[in-house]
Design goal:
With 297 residues, the chain is mainly α. The chain has twelve helices and two strands, in the order αααββααααααααα.
Length: 297
């Protein structure tokens, strides 16, 4: 079976593009890798949605310190994953922490993509001085180690959910800009773009309604992968003490708070690490499945 690049497809509108995106997700059943990824992501989404029903205890309540997994609580209920050094139920904190991750990670990714797509469209379509300026700005930002950028931004403006979104947007948008720019450089020479120019459509209309929908394939795959990177970032910032302020449940913060007791009470750090890894794995496998499907079109 021959394969065809997403960028070689004829022009499609947003309605057709949205339908093809939905169809691609529906075809995930043809990829066992994508199905596993979708299952993992859906699992954590459901955990976040039904957190009040799943968690048996208040995630910030000090109940019984250093309880091992499976210990019965004196007040009723079971510490299925044990408790931490402060007596807080680990399962409840993981469940409520999933809300934190699945709230801030998509928001940060969408913001980064909004900025990166706009920069990439302008650089790739208009070229010239605009391309040179935007490309040099991206090169400067990308020249710094990404973790250093996160630490500088958070240390400067403070640790909060909103500031984490700003830091991720600032550090991630240049990479997205480069991907979009490369796609636009190819798509801007297509016949449907020339037809839109002949009709006298504005540059922004051509970029947003003719070029962008046809660049959706690589961007969707990259977005799934980048969601995994953002989840790693949120976990790392929490581990470094630059995540959400305590006592709100934060998977990275849970590992940071209990890392010194990991040798004696490994369950305190092991289960939050498993939660982070499983969600990241889900997005990575989902991206692989979507890529497989796109190559079959």
């Amino acid at each position: 079976m021959t394969t065809k690049s997403i960028t070689e497809m004829p022009s499609v509108g947003y309605g057709a593009a949205l339908w093809r995106i939905i169809k691609s997700f529906g075809l995930l059943r043809e990829s066992w890798v994508g199905m596993i990824g979708a299952f993992l992501v859906l699992f954590w989404v459901l955990v976040a949605v039904f957190a009040p029903l799943i968690a048996q205890f208040d995630p910030n309540a000090a109940i019984q310190p250093f309880a091992k997994p499976g210990t019965m609580a004196a007040s009723g209920g079971t510490f299925w994953l044990g408790t931490d050094h402060m007596g807080r139920d680990i399962l409840s904190r993981i469940v409520w922490g999933s809300r934190t991750v699945l709230f801030y990670a998509p928001i940060a990714t969408v913001c980064a993509y909004t900025v990166g797509i706009l920069m990439g469209l302008m650089a790739g379509y208009r070229g010239g001085l605009v391309d040179d300026i935007l490309s040099r700005i991206s090169d400067i930002i990308l020249s710094f180690p990404v973790l250093v950028l996160y630490i500088i931004v958070i240390a400067t403006i403070g640790a909060s959910g909103f500031n984490i979104v700003i830091a991720i947007t600032f550090a991630s948008s240049p990479g997205i800009m480069r991907i979009v720019r490369g796609l636009v450089l190819d798509l801007r020479n297509r016949d449907y773009v020339a037809a839109a120019q002949t009709r006298g459509e504005s540059d922004w209309r051509i970029m947003l309604f003719e070029i962008l929908p046809n660049a959706r394939g690589p961007l969707i795959v990259d977005a799934c992968l980048r969601l995994g990177y953002v989840i790693i970032t949120i976990g790392v910032l929490g581990f470094l003490g630059l995540g959400l302020p305590p006592p709100d449940p934060d998977w990275g913060g849970m590992v940071n708070e209990t890392r010194q007791m990991a040798m004696v009470f490994p369950h305190m750090t092991l289960f939050p690490c498993i939660a982070i890894s499983s969600l990241i794995l889900g997005f990575n496998l989902l991206a692989d499945g979507l890529r497989e499907i796109s190559l079959r079109d």
